[in-house]
Write a structure and sequence with these properties.
The protein has one domain: Gcn5-related N-acetyltransferase (GNAT) (Aminopeptidase, 3-Layer(aba) Sandwich). The protein is an alpha+beta fold. Strands 1-2-3-4 form a 4-stranded antiparallel β-sheet, with helices on both faces. Strands 5-7-6 form a 3-stranded antiparallel β-sheet, with helices on one face. The chain is built from 5 helices and 7 strands. The chain starts with a strand and ends with a strand.
Length: 141
């Protein structure tokens, strides 16, 4: 089931965000992600966030949006490759006419996923915070 983020969900969502960012982006020092936690705690309640609940009503994934920009899409490690990311993405596609996102060039798994879901690479740049190359991806109905 997918529903909007509730205040009591924030710690769980931040734990998934932290754990999965460190795993997916092992080319960036973990300390960078730890340094972003306070910002995430401030921004999550202000953002459009949807969580995915498993059959036991545990949060196992989420997608965060800032308008038409996907700020993050994560599934917990144990639930990856089970369709949660696709379901969350399909859910927001029903509500938006276009979407953009940035993915690190070294995170080929994410790039492949988004391309399978109809996103195209629009441009490349460098993330000023990490110095890593990233691609800007775009989807339109």
């Amino acid at each position: 089931m997918i529903r909007k983020l509730q205040k009591e969900d924030i710690e769980t969502v931040i734990n998934i965000w932290e754990e999965e960012n460190i795993k997916a982006h092992d080319f960036i020092a973990a300390s960078y992600w730890y340094s972003q936690i306070d910002m995430m705690k401030r921004e999550l309640p202000r953002s459009e966030v949807y969580v995915y609940l498993d059959s036991k009503e545990n949060i196992v994934g989420f997608i965060g949006l800032a308008g038409e920009y996907i700020a993050g899409l994560f599934a917990s490690q144990k639930k990856q490759s089970s369709g949660i990311g696709k379901q969350l993405l399909d859910y927001v596609k029903t509500q938006k006419n276009k979407l953009t996102l940035e993915a690190y060039e070294k995170n080929q798994r994410a790039i492949d996923f988004y391309q399978r879901e109809g996103f195209v690479i629009k441009e490349a740049n460098v993330d000023e915070d990490t110095g890593e190359k990233e691609v800007v991806m775009f989807w339109k109905k």
